[in-house]
Protein backbone atom coordinates (compact mmCIF):
# COMPACT_ATOMS: atom_id res chain seq x y z
CA UNK A 1 0.00 0.00 0.00
CA UNK A 2 1.49 3.35 -1.05
CA UNK A 3 1.90 5.79 1.85
CA UNK A 4 2.44 9.51 1.33
CA UNK A 5 5.08 10.99 3.67
CA UNK A 6 4.53 14.28 5.51
CA UNK A 7 7.47 15.91 7.25
CA UNK A 8 6.72 16.78 10.88
CA UNK A 9 9.18 18.62 13.17
CA UNK A 10 8.27 16.39 16.12
CA UNK A 11 7.94 12.88 14.67
CA UNK A 12 9.96 13.16 11.48
CA UNK A 13 8.30 11.62 8.42
CA UNK A 14 4.68 10.62 9.06
CA UNK A 15 3.51 8.01 6.56
CA UNK A 16 -0.08 8.82 5.62
CA UNK A 17 -2.33 5.92 4.60
CA UNK A 18 -4.71 6.47 1.63
CA UNK A 19 -7.86 6.67 3.81
CA UNK A 20 -6.17 9.32 5.95
CA UNK A 21 -5.00 11.29 2.92
CA UNK A 22 -8.59 11.42 1.64
CA UNK A 23 -9.78 12.83 4.96
CA UNK A 24 -6.91 15.32 5.17
CA UNK A 25 -8.17 17.02 2.01
CA UNK A 26 -11.68 17.67 3.38
CA UNK A 27 -12.69 21.18 4.39
CA UNK A 28 -13.55 19.98 7.89
CA UNK A 29 -9.96 18.87 8.52
CA UNK A 30 -8.28 21.68 6.57
CA UNK A 31 -10.08 24.20 8.82
CA UNK A 32 -7.77 23.03 11.60
CA UNK A 33 -4.82 24.64 9.79
CA UNK A 34 -6.26 27.99 10.88
CA UNK A 35 -6.95 27.16 14.51
CA UNK A 36 -4.03 27.75 16.86
CA UNK A 37 -3.33 24.88 19.20
CA UNK A 38 -2.73 27.20 22.17
CA UNK A 39 -5.18 30.00 21.44
CA UNK A 40 -3.76 33.37 22.50
CA UNK A 41 -0.64 31.91 24.13
CA UNK A 42 1.45 33.30 21.26
CA UNK A 43 1.11 36.66 23.02
CA UNK A 44 3.42 35.13 25.64
CA UNK A 45 5.47 32.73 23.51
CA UNK A 46 5.78 34.13 19.96
CA UNK A 47 6.59 30.69 18.56
CA UNK A 48 3.31 29.17 19.72
CA UNK A 49 1.64 29.45 16.32
CA UNK A 50 1.27 25.73 15.69
CA UNK A 51 -2.19 24.48 14.84
CA UNK A 52 -4.73 21.78 15.56
CA UNK A 53 -3.92 20.37 12.12
CA UNK A 54 -0.34 19.53 13.05
CA UNK A 55 -1.41 18.09 16.38
CA UNK A 56 -4.05 15.94 14.68
CA UNK A 57 -1.42 14.52 12.36
CA UNK A 58 0.83 13.78 15.32
CA UNK A 59 -1.97 12.09 17.22
CA UNK A 60 -2.75 9.96 14.16
CA UNK A 61 0.91 8.93 13.94
CA UNK A 62 1.13 7.91 17.61
CA UNK A 63 -2.21 6.09 17.47
CA UNK A 64 -1.04 4.11 14.45
CA UNK A 65 2.04 3.10 16.44
CA UNK A 66 -0.12 1.76 19.27
CA UNK A 67 -2.56 0.00 16.95
CA UNK A 68 -0.20 -2.78 15.89
CA UNK A 69 -1.98 -5.50 17.86
CA UNK A 70 -5.45 -4.51 16.63
CA UNK A 71 -7.35 -6.01 13.72
CA UNK A 72 -7.10 -4.24 10.38
CA UNK A 73 -10.63 -2.83 10.82
CA UNK A 74 -9.92 -1.57 14.35
CA UNK A 75 -6.62 -0.10 13.27
CA UNK A 76 -8.23 1.85 10.45
CA UNK A 77 -10.98 3.15 12.74
CA UNK A 78 -8.63 4.32 15.48
CA UNK A 79 -6.36 6.03 12.96
CA UNK A 80 -9.34 7.92 11.54
CA UNK A 81 -10.60 8.79 15.02
CA UNK A 82 -7.16 10.08 16.00
CA UNK A 83 -7.00 12.32 12.93
CA UNK A 84 -10.54 13.66 13.49
CA UNK A 85 -10.49 13.90 17.29
CA UNK A 86 -10.15 17.71 17.29
CA UNK A 87 -12.45 18.72 14.41
CA UNK A 88 -14.97 19.99 16.97
CA UNK A 89 -12.70 22.72 18.31
CA UNK A 90 -13.84 26.28 17.76
CA UNK A 91 -11.69 29.34 17.06
CA UNK A 92 -8.70 29.74 19.38
CA UNK A 93 -9.15 26.17 20.62
CA UNK A 94 -9.79 25.89 24.37
CA UNK A 95 -10.40 29.63 24.73
CA UNK A 96 -13.79 29.22 23.02
CA UNK A 97 -14.57 25.76 24.41
CA UNK A 98 -16.58 26.73 27.51
CA UNK A 99 -18.63 29.33 25.61
CA UNK A 100 -19.51 26.82 22.89
CA UNK A 101 -20.55 24.25 25.47
CA UNK A 102 -22.57 26.82 27.42
CA UNK A 103 -24.63 27.91 24.42
CA UNK A 104 -24.79 24.71 22.37
CA UNK A 105 -24.40 21.96 25.01
CA UNK A 106 -21.71 20.47 22.77
CA UNK A 107 -18.22 19.71 23.99
CA UNK A 108 -15.30 19.81 21.57
CA UNK A 109 -15.39 16.01 21.35
CA UNK A 110 -19.10 15.99 20.45
CA UNK A 111 -18.29 15.73 16.76
CA UNK A 112 -21.02 13.41 15.46
CA UNK A 113 -22.67 16.25 13.50
CA UNK A 114 -19.39 16.88 11.65
CA UNK A 115 -18.49 13.24 11.05
CA UNK A 116 -22.00 12.48 9.82
CA UNK A 117 -21.74 15.25 7.21
CA UNK A 118 -21.56 14.03 3.62
CA UNK A 119 -17.99 15.25 3.26
CA UNK A 120 -16.70 12.85 5.94
CA UNK A 121 -19.41 10.16 5.98
CA UNK A 122 -19.08 9.63 2.23
CA UNK A 123 -15.41 8.69 2.60
CA UNK A 124 -16.07 6.48 5.63
CA UNK A 125 -18.80 4.65 3.73
CA UNK A 126 -16.32 3.68 1.02
CA UNK A 127 -14.33 1.83 3.68
CA UNK A 128 -17.39 0.33 5.38
CA UNK A 129 -16.96 2.43 8.51
CA UNK A 130 -19.87 3.88 10.47
CA UNK A 131 -19.56 7.53 11.59
CA UNK A 132 -21.05 6.55 14.97
CA UNK A 133 -18.11 4.20 15.55
CA UNK A 134 -15.62 7.01 14.97
CA UNK A 135 -17.55 9.36 17.27
CA UNK A 136 -17.54 6.72 20.00
CA UNK A 137 -13.80 6.22 19.73
CA UNK A 138 -13.16 9.97 19.92
CA UNK A 139 -15.14 10.24 23.14
CA UNK A 140 -13.33 7.27 24.66
CA UNK A 141 -16.49 5.18 24.89
CA UNK A 142 -14.94 2.11 23.28
CA UNK A 143 -12.07 -0.22 24.07
CA UNK A 144 -9.80 1.12 21.35
CA UNK A 145 -10.95 4.68 22.03
CA UNK A 146 -8.75 4.59 25.12
CA UNK A 147 -5.79 5.05 22.80
CA UNK A 148 -6.82 8.66 22.06
CA UNK A 149 -9.06 9.47 25.05
CA UNK A 150 -7.98 7.60 28.14
CA UNK A 151 -6.01 8.04 31.31
CA UNK A 152 -2.70 7.93 29.43
CA UNK A 153 -3.42 8.61 25.77
CA UNK A 154 -1.60 9.64 22.61
CA UNK A 155 -3.54 12.92 22.42
CA UNK A 156 -1.78 14.37 25.45
CA UNK A 157 1.45 12.61 24.53
CA UNK A 158 1.60 14.60 21.29
CA UNK A 159 0.37 17.94 22.59
CA UNK A 160 2.79 18.05 25.53
CA UNK A 161 5.82 17.36 23.35
CA UNK A 162 4.56 19.63 20.55
CA UNK A 163 3.57 22.53 22.80
CA UNK A 164 6.92 22.44 24.59
CA UNK A 165 8.74 22.47 21.25
CA UNK A 166 6.86 25.46 19.83
CA UNK A 167 6.87 27.53 23.02
CA UNK A 168 10.58 26.85 23.48
CA UNK A 169 10.32 25.72 27.11
CA UNK A 170 12.59 22.90 28.22
CA UNK A 171 9.91 20.59 29.58
CA UNK A 172 9.12 18.44 26.53
CA UNK A 173 11.99 15.96 26.70
CA UNK A 174 10.00 12.72 26.89
CA UNK A 175 11.09 9.26 25.77
CA UNK A 176 7.80 8.57 24.03
CA UNK A 177 9.37 5.75 22.00
CA UNK A 178 9.97 3.79 25.20
CA UNK A 179 6.54 4.76 26.49
CA UNK A 180 4.82 3.50 23.33
CA UNK A 181 6.60 0.16 23.68
CA UNK A 182 5.20 -0.23 27.19
CA UNK A 183 1.54 0.67 26.70
CA UNK A 184 -0.65 -2.28 25.73
CA UNK A 185 -4.16 -3.70 26.05
CA UNK A 186 -4.73 -6.05 28.94
CA UNK A 187 -8.23 -7.42 29.65
CA UNK A 188 -9.71 -4.81 27.29
CA UNK A 189 -8.03 -1.91 29.10
CA UNK A 190 -4.94 0.12 28.30
CA UNK A 191 -2.24 -0.62 30.86
CA UNK A 192 1.28 0.60 31.43
CA UNK A 193 3.95 -2.03 31.88
CA UNK A 194 5.97 -1.33 35.01
CA UNK A 195 9.18 -1.05 33.02
CA UNK A 196 7.69 2.01 31.30
CA UNK A 197 6.96 3.79 34.59
CA UNK A 198 9.83 6.29 34.37
CA UNK A 199 8.86 7.30 30.84
CA UNK A 200 5.28 7.87 32.02
CA UNK A 201 6.52 9.89 34.99
CA UNK A 202 8.59 12.00 32.60
CA UNK A 203 5.52 12.71 30.44
CA UNK A 204 3.38 13.64 33.42
CA UNK A 205 6.13 15.77 34.95
CA UNK A 206 6.40 17.67 31.66
CA UNK A 207 2.65 18.27 31.69
CA UNK A 208 2.78 19.35 35.34
CA UNK A 209 5.52 21.89 34.61
CA UNK A 210 3.78 23.16 31.48
CA UNK A 211 0.66 24.29 33.34
CA UNK A 212 2.03 27.22 35.36
CA UNK A 213 4.59 28.23 32.74
CA UNK A 214 2.50 27.84 29.54
CA UNK A 215 -1.13 26.70 29.83
CA UNK A 216 -1.93 28.89 32.85
CA UNK A 217 0.55 31.71 32.28
CA UNK A 218 -1.12 34.85 33.58
CA UNK A 219 -0.81 36.76 30.29
CA UNK A 220 -2.44 33.87 28.43
CA UNK A 221 -5.20 33.73 31.05
CA UNK A 222 -5.82 37.48 30.69
CA UNK A 223 -5.94 37.32 26.89
CA UNK A 224 -8.20 34.26 26.99
CA UNK A 225 -10.55 35.95 29.44
CA UNK A 226 -10.77 39.07 27.28
CA UNK A 227 -11.57 36.93 24.24
CA UNK A 228 -14.24 34.92 26.08
CA UNK A 229 -15.99 38.07 27.26
CA UNK A 230 -15.85 39.56 23.77
CA UNK A 231 -17.22 36.37 22.23
CA UNK A 232 -20.06 36.04 24.73
CA UNK A 233 -21.05 39.67 24.16
CA UNK A 234 -21.14 38.97 20.42
CA UNK A 235 -23.38 35.93 20.93
CA UNK A 236 -25.76 37.80 23.24
CA UNK A 237 -25.88 40.73 20.82
CA UNK A 238 -26.74 38.43 17.91
CA UNK A 239 -23.51 39.18 16.05
CA UNK A 240 -22.59 35.49 15.81
CA UNK A 241 -24.45 32.20 16.18
CA UNK A 242 -22.80 29.93 18.76
CA UNK A 243 -23.74 26.88 16.67
CA UNK A 244 -21.58 28.19 13.82
CA UNK A 245 -18.39 28.49 15.85
CA UNK A 246 -17.30 24.87 15.39
CA UNK A 247 -17.17 25.51 11.67
CA UNK A 248 -15.24 28.80 11.85
CA UNK A 249 -11.51 29.41 12.26
CA UNK A 250 -9.42 31.98 14.11
CA UNK A 251 -9.01 34.34 11.18
CA UNK A 252 -12.65 34.42 10.16
CA UNK A 253 -13.89 35.11 13.68
CA UNK A 254 -11.16 37.67 14.35
CA UNK A 255 -11.99 39.62 11.20
CA UNK A 256 -15.73 39.52 11.85
CA UNK A 257 -15.36 40.58 15.49
CA UNK A 258 -13.81 43.88 14.43
CA UNK A 259 -17.22 44.84 13.04
CA UNK A 260 -19.31 43.44 15.90
CA UNK A 261 -20.77 45.46 18.78
CA UNK A 262 -18.62 48.19 20.30
CA UNK A 263 -17.43 46.11 23.26
CA UNK A 264 -16.44 43.01 21.25
CA UNK A 265 -14.71 45.16 18.64
CA UNK A 266 -12.75 47.01 21.33
CA UNK A 267 -11.64 43.77 22.95
CA UNK A 268 -10.44 42.17 19.71
CA UNK A 269 -8.56 45.36 18.79
CA UNK A 270 -6.84 45.27 22.17
CA UNK A 271 -5.93 41.61 21.68
CA UNK A 272 -4.63 42.16 18.17
CA UNK A 273 -2.37 45.00 19.36
CA UNK A 274 -1.46 43.21 22.64
CA UNK A 275 -2.99 46.07 24.64
CA UNK A 276 -4.03 43.78 27.47
CA UNK A 277 -5.72 44.13 30.82
CA UNK A 278 -3.55 43.85 33.94
CA UNK A 279 -3.82 41.83 37.12
CA UNK A 280 -5.59 43.65 39.93
CA UNK A 281 -5.74 40.49 42.02
CA UNK A 282 -4.00 37.15 41.49
CA UNK A 283 -4.19 34.71 44.39
CA UNK A 284 -4.13 31.00 45.13
CA UNK A 285 -5.77 28.66 47.60
CA UNK A 286 -3.51 30.04 50.34
CA UNK A 287 -5.54 33.28 50.14
CA UNK A 288 -9.03 32.02 49.19
CA UNK A 289 -10.97 28.91 50.13
CA UNK A 290 -11.39 26.12 47.57
CA UNK A 291 -15.13 26.73 47.67
CA UNK A 292 -14.41 29.84 45.56
CA UNK A 293 -14.72 27.67 42.44
CA UNK A 294 -18.49 27.62 43.02
CA UNK A 295 -18.54 31.38 42.41
CA UNK A 296 -18.31 30.73 38.67
CA UNK A 297 -22.12 30.43 38.72
CA UNK A 298 -22.40 34.09 39.71
CA UNK A 299 -19.22 35.33 38.04
CA UNK A 300 -21.02 37.97 35.96
CA UNK A 301 -22.71 39.37 39.06
CA UNK A 302 -19.34 39.58 40.83
CA UNK A 303 -17.77 41.39 37.90
CA UNK A 304 -20.58 43.91 37.77
CA UNK A 305 -20.45 44.51 41.53
CA UNK A 306 -16.67 45.03 41.63
CA UNK A 307 -16.86 47.32 38.59
CA UNK A 308 -19.67 49.36 40.19
CA UNK A 309 -17.82 49.73 43.50
CA UNK A 310 -14.56 50.66 41.73
CA UNK A 311 -16.23 53.10 39.35
CA UNK A 312 -15.21 51.14 36.25
CA UNK A 313 -17.35 50.63 33.17
CA UNK A 314 -19.14 47.28 33.08
CA UNK A 315 -17.23 44.70 31.06
CA UNK A 316 -13.83 46.11 32.00
CA UNK A 317 -13.45 44.09 35.20
CA UNK A 318 -12.96 40.41 34.46
CA UNK A 319 -13.00 37.67 37.08
CA UNK A 320 -11.14 34.49 36.17
CA UNK A 321 -11.91 31.50 38.41
CA UNK A 322 -10.30 28.38 36.88
CA UNK A 323 -11.79 24.95 37.35
CA UNK A 324 -10.37 22.65 39.99
CA UNK A 325 -7.29 20.81 38.70
CA UNK A 326 -7.97 17.35 37.27
CA UNK A 327 -5.56 14.43 37.32
CA UNK A 328 -7.11 11.64 35.26
CA UNK A 329 -3.80 9.82 35.14
CA UNK A 330 -4.42 8.47 38.62
CA UNK A 331 -6.71 5.89 36.94
CA UNK A 332 -3.89 4.51 34.78
CA UNK A 333 -3.34 0.85 35.56
CA UNK A 334 0.22 -0.42 35.89
CA UNK A 335 0.98 -4.08 35.19
CA UNK A 336 3.58 -5.03 37.77
CA UNK A 337 6.37 -7.53 37.14
CA UNK A 338 4.55 -10.08 39.32
CA UNK A 339 1.41 -9.80 37.17
CA UNK A 340 -0.56 -7.63 39.61
CA UNK A 341 -2.45 -4.54 38.44
CA UNK A 342 -2.09 -1.39 40.51
CA UNK A 343 -3.15 2.23 40.11
CA UNK A 344 -0.40 4.57 38.96
CA UNK A 345 -0.65 6.77 42.04
CA UNK A 346 -0.11 3.69 44.24
CA UNK A 347 3.05 2.78 42.36
CA UNK A 348 4.66 6.19 41.86
CA UNK A 349 5.32 8.56 44.76
CA UNK A 350 6.24 11.21 42.20
CA UNK A 351 2.80 11.02 40.59
CA UNK A 352 1.12 11.35 43.99
CA UNK A 353 3.20 14.44 44.76
CA UNK A 354 2.34 15.98 41.37
CA UNK A 355 -1.37 15.35 41.94
CA UNK A 356 -1.25 17.24 45.23
CA UNK A 357 0.97 19.99 43.83
CA UNK A 358 -1.45 20.94 41.03
CA UNK A 359 -3.50 22.77 43.66
CA UNK A 360 -0.47 24.88 44.62
CA UNK A 361 -0.34 26.38 41.13
CA UNK A 362 -4.06 27.28 40.95
CA UNK A 363 -4.70 31.04 40.72
CA UNK A 364 -7.81 33.21 40.68
CA UNK A 365 -7.45 36.45 38.78
CA UNK A 366 -9.25 39.78 38.61
CA UNK A 367 -8.19 41.77 35.53
CA UNK A 368 -8.88 45.32 34.46
CA UNK A 369 -7.56 48.30 32.49
CA UNK A 370 -4.06 49.41 33.56
CA UNK A 371 -5.30 52.80 34.74
CA UNK A 372 -7.97 51.17 36.93
CA UNK A 373 -5.79 48.52 38.51
CA UNK A 374 -5.22 50.09 41.95
CA UNK A 375 -8.82 50.89 42.75
CA UNK A 376 -10.09 47.57 41.38
CA UNK A 377 -7.44 45.80 43.47
CA UNK A 378 -8.70 47.50 46.66
CA UNK A 379 -12.30 46.57 45.95
CA UNK A 380 -11.48 43.00 44.85
CA UNK A 381 -9.36 42.31 47.94
CA UNK A 382 -12.21 43.50 50.15
CA UNK A 383 -14.82 41.57 48.16
CA UNK A 384 -12.93 38.29 48.39
CA UNK A 385 -11.59 39.04 51.89
CA UNK A 386 -7.98 38.80 50.77
CA UNK A 387 -5.35 40.49 52.92
CA UNK A 388 -2.93 42.78 51.14
CA UNK A 389 0.41 41.07 50.64
CA UNK A 390 3.30 43.47 51.28
CA UNK A 391 5.76 43.89 48.45
CA UNK A 392 9.09 42.20 49.04
CA UNK A 393 11.99 44.60 49.25
CA UNK A 394 14.79 44.15 46.79
CA UNK A 395 17.75 42.27 48.15
CA UNK A 396 20.70 44.52 48.73
CA UNK A 397 24.27 43.67 47.99
CA UNK A 398 26.36 43.27 51.12
TrEMBL record:
This is HD superfamily phosphohydrolase. It comes from Methanocella conradii (strain DSM 24694 / JCM 17849 / CGMCC 1.5162 / HZ254). InterPro entries: dGTPase-like, HD/PDEase_dom, HD_assoc_2, HD_domain. Residues 52-160 form the HD domain. SMART domains: HDc. GO terms for biological process: dGTP catabolic process. It comes from the Archaea. GO terms for molecular function: dGTPase activity. Pfam families: HD, HD_assoc_2. The lineage of its organism: Archaea, Methanobacteriati, Methanobacteriota, Stenosarchaea group, Methanomicrobia.
Amino acid sequence: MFMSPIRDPIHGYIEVAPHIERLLDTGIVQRLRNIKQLGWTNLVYPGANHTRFEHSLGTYYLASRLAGELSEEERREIEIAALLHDVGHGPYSHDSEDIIEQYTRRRHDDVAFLIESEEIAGILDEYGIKPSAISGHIQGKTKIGQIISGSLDVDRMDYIIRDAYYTGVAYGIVDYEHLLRNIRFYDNNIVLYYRGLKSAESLLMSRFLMYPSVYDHHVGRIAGSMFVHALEAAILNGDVNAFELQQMDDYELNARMRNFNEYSADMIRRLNSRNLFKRALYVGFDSVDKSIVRYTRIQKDIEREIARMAGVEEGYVLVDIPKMPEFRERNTMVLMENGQLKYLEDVSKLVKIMEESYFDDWRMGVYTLPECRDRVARVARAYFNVERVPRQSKLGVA
